[in-house]
Design goal:
Structural class: mainly alpha
Shape: rod-shaped
Number of strands: 0
Oligomer: single chain
Number of helices: 4
Strand content: under 5%
Helix content: 55-70%
Radius of gyration: 23 Å
Distance between the termini: 58 Å
Largest sheet: none
Length: 118
C-alpha cells in the first residue's frame, strides 16, 4: 500500500512539472492571446464575409473596367465571400489550436484595397 502511495505521489509531481514545462511558450507566442485573436477574427470573418462581394467588384473595376468588375469581380466576390465565411467558421471551431488567423488581411476592414488571401 505504501509503495502505491509513493508511486501516485511521484506521478502527480511529474505531471505537475510537465505541465509547467509545456506552459513555458517555447515558440514565442502567448497561448491565450493567440487563441483569443483567432476566435475573434473567426467570429468577425463569419459575420462579415459577405462584404467580400462589393469589395471584389470595386477592386476589379478599379483595376480593369466596369465590365470586368460586374462579371469577373462578381464571380470573384462570391468566391471570396464564401471562402472568408467558411474559414471564419473553421477558425472559430479550431480557436483552441494557437495558430494565426487563416485569412490575410485578418479582418475585412483592415486593408480594403488588397485582395484577400487564404
Amino acid at each position: 500500500m505504501r509503495q502505491m502511495i509513493k508511486l501516485i505521489l511521484a506521478l502527480l509531481i511529474l505531471t505537475f512539472w510537465s505541465s509547467h514545462a509545456m506552459a513555458k511558450e517555447p515558440y514565442g507566442y502567448n497561448y491565450i492571446s493567440t487563441s483569443s485573436t483567432k476566435l475573434v477574427a473567426g467570429i468577425a470573418n463569419t459575420a462579415t464575409g459577405f462584404i467580400e462581394l462589393p469589395k471584389n467588384i470595386i477592386l476589379v473595376t478599379q483595376r480593369d473596367s466596369i465590365l470586368h468588375g460586374m462579371t469577373f469581380g462578381l464571380a470573384s466576390g462570391v468566391m471570396h465571400s464564401v471562402a472568408r465565411t467558411v474559414i471564419g467558421v473553421f477558425d472559430v471551431a479550431t480557436f483552441w489550436i494557437p495558430t494565426p488567423p487563416s485569412v490575410q488581411p485578418t479582418y475585412i476592414w483592415e486593408d480594403f484595397s488588397v485582395e484577400s488571401s487564404y
